[in-house]
Amino acid sequence: MPPTETITGIWPGVGSGPSAVRARELAELVVQRIGTTDDVLRHVARAAGQATYPAGWYPPSLSHGSAGLALLHLESARAGIGEPERAFDAVREAVAATATDPLQSAGLFGGTSGLALAVAECARLEPRFRPSLDRLHDQLARQVLDTQWPKMERHLADEHYDLISGAAGILAYLASIEEPGQEVRRAAGELAGFLIWLSQAADDPGVPHRWLLTPDYYPPMSNHRQQYPHGYLNLGFSHGVPGIAAALAAAWGAGIREPGTRAAIDALTSWIRGTQGQDRFGPVWPEGVAVDERGVELSSHTHCDQLAWCYGTASVSAALLTTARCTGDAELLKVAVEGFETALARTRAAACASPTLCHGHAGILLLCLDFGEVSERAREMVPVLLDELIAYGDPALPLVFVDQERTGVHVDDPSLLTGAIGVALVLLAATGDRRPGWFLPFTAR
Question: What's the gap between Cα 212 and its chain centre?
Fold first, then answer.
């Protein structure tokens, strides 16, 4: 079968057999271990003592809060191993927490967009959540329209435009709203306009692209100053240009077509493709492209690949897949499939360091499920990757799955992005019969 032939309407999950049974058993154990708020907080306290950089727990957060927990309870209920009311309780707790600690961010993983996604998923089962969802959408639109999106070269942080906290993630969520009101449409247009501006030629001759990150705007907990002393261009789906391209494409596919949108998508994907290197497996993308003191891009060739959702070849390929699907670009689809199939080949030579979603094995399996409709190789690898993810599980561990934050540092993390909730969600997706709505933050569609 040609690698770009779409397998329409067939979800590549492993619906039956011993692996499916074991996957659901492990997911059910995770659900049981986080059955109450007290349980969750106990695990959060343990994780804080183990982690180098504790993430904490903020109930309205999708990545590290009750909004993400609600998604797990929803999916476990759909799988017949949980109760939907537990999801409703979790999302009510998430919303109620904003009364005393209001959401300051509109972001997808820790702000209003993410909470709205969780409420929207609950509203699919329980229409009584619809008024709350409408209010959240109004709040989200106001947040976006009240924000001064910084159109200043050399003065941008990735959190301004990325998928995790910035404009790309918010736009991806807004593009998913089925019946957007006027203010939501205005907000989406504002975000698209900012991202289109990013894609355009820089005014400063020392800035190769407007999305350049300079040392003054690096995250405080990173080695970027040593790695990129003069600045760099981020290539992660989570924090970089691939996420911008995917979000603009999702908006395009949803009919949000501000002037310059398609030119921006083409410019971004052209640059992404130009940074591609090669190794013995095939195409490979680095985490970022450094610039010299004059702003000239340096060689992006890399001899290693991060096997993860957040960065690396699988990450870039996934963003290109969303972009190709939403724009109907068949040639870009081929690039995406080739890149991802190459990343899958690398998983045979080197295992992921962690089982988790952001930077581990669950993230690769999630992307494999997403590619299953367009890649026969991805379909073949779903049961293989599922068995490998199952092998990470140990019922003797507090949360069945443990995150390896970095080499030698293991954290019993209950969260969605870097912990057991995310792993359990992927196990349920891989043994289910449909593409779950919670994929949106990880695929931008």
Answer: 21
- Sign of the alpha-carbon dihedral angle for 439, 440, 443, 445: positive
Q: Give, as one character, the DSSP assignment of residue 5.
A: -
* CA dihedral over 436, 438, 442, 445, signed as positive or negative: positive
Element spanning 283, H or E: strand 283-284
> What size, in residues, is the chain?
445
Neighbours of 147 (CB within 10 A): 17
User: What residue ranges in 294-397 does DSSP mark as E strands?
Assistant: none
- What confidence score (pLDDT) does residue 37 get? 86
- The one-character DSSP state at 36 is S
Contact 51, 409 (CB under 8 A): yes
Q: What is the pLDDT of residue 84?
A: 96
Tokens of 199: 């894609």
Nearest to 26 by CA among 432, 433, 416, 396: 396
How many C-beta atoms lie closer than 10 Å to residue 266's C-beta?
16
Query: pTM of the predicted model, to two decimals?
Result: 0.97
CA distance 186 to 208: 30
DSSP assignment, residue 410?
A: E
Task: Specify the DSSP element, H or E, that contains 290.
Answer: strand 288-290
pLDDT (0 to 100) of residue 317: 98
What are the mean pLDDT values of the chain's consecutive 10-residue runs (445 residues total)? 50 96 98 92 96 94 98 97 96 96 96 98 97 97 97 97 98 97 98 98 97 94 90 97 98 98 98 95 96 92 86 98 98 98 96 94 98 96 98 98 94 98 98 97 97
Task: Output phi, psi for 176, to 5 deg.
Answer: -90, -10
Q: What CA–CA distance (Å, rounded) separates 192 from 172? A: 10
Q: Is the dihedral of CA 32, 436, 266, 152 positive or negative?
A: negative
Q: Are 394 and 387 spatial neighbours (Cβ–Cβ below 8 Å)?
A: no
Give residue 9's pLDDT.
61
Q: Which residues contact 120 (CB under 8 A, 6 or more apart)?
A: 133, 177, 437
To 5 degrees, how large is the angle CA 202–CA 204–CA 209?
35
Is residue 334 within 8 Å of residue 340, measured between CB atoms? Answer: no
Q: Say if CB 74 and CB 123 are below 8 A apart.
A: no
| Tokens (6 digits) for 395 | 């019922």
